Amino acid sequence: MELSLLLIKALIILAVFGVTLLIATYSTYAERKVAAFIQDRVGPNRAGPFGLAQPLADAVKLFFKEEFVPANANKFLFIAGPSLAMLTACMSSAVIPFGGTLIIGGEAIHLQAIEVNIGILYVFGIVALGVYGIMIGGWASNNKFSLLGAIRAASQNISYELAMGMSIIALLLVTGTLSMRDIAAQQGEELFGISGMNWNIFYQPLGFLIFIVCAFAETNRVPFDLPECETELIGGYHTEYSSMGMGLYLFAEYVNIFVASAVMSTLYFGGYNFPFMDQLGLPHNVVTILGTVVLFGKIFFFIFFFMWVRWTLPRFRYDQLMNLGWKILIPLSIANVILTGGAILLKQEFFQ
Predict the structure, then answer these.
(1) Domain total for the chain?
(2) Distance (Å, rounded) from C-alpha 292 to C-alpha 56?
(3) Is the pTM above the cut of 0.90?
């Protein structure tokens, strides 16, 4: 039995890794289609039916392009930069619960790669390491535009991680746990007589707003794409990259978008929980599978939202980026923590 459980866990880990890569791959296709729709164009429609083979064509093109290393670059770090960016991006999804529990042969199987009771800290730690991939690649290129992009990325991440961390502290005051599985399970409780609707967005709307703005900054997406700002820095930190070095940087960005969307769906929008989930009268395993489908629906919505914003809003100036992070989001996040703590104290005072 121990061996079979180990095999099932290994399959879940492989499935999470595979799904992460698959969604990131087809996010490149979705990005082009969303852009085409917004700009009243067709988008990719040549490679395969409806252009569905376009991501594969892009991958083949990048794989077979010449790998160019600048003469004065640090070759080891030049290769290590995109590798680290991709590694940290793929590690982030390991603690996200993609569903409840399946009962197989009397054993409860959690649809989660690994469970640690400090899951949120794990995600934040891995995400914080991701900026080193950008910093190393930008510095190792020995190009002033790449270095400027790397410095921008580091200062941007530091600035917005503070506000993001404070928004999570307010959420922890409400949930009382760092485990992402426990946070998802709590949101399956009843709210106003509806099971599966006790979502944290109802308790932390300001915290979610701060979190999603910081998520855009952490993933270097428009309007926060200052590290690779083409109109100012040619291509930013990956100016000197070609072939799979460039491919890994671009792919890591889409993996990070998927992870950010999954984290937001889990922390604030109930994760795999959905309205009336315990009142449908369906078998437990069917409800679990439905919950996983619902979670991916939420994730796809946020991925679409990332793309919609990219093709709708202009890029910030750098001073606007810093002002928003330090003068608006951090004070708001501190106020949110104070208000949340005060509300919890009042609740304990009047309802005990």
Answers:
(1) 1
(2) 26
(3) yes
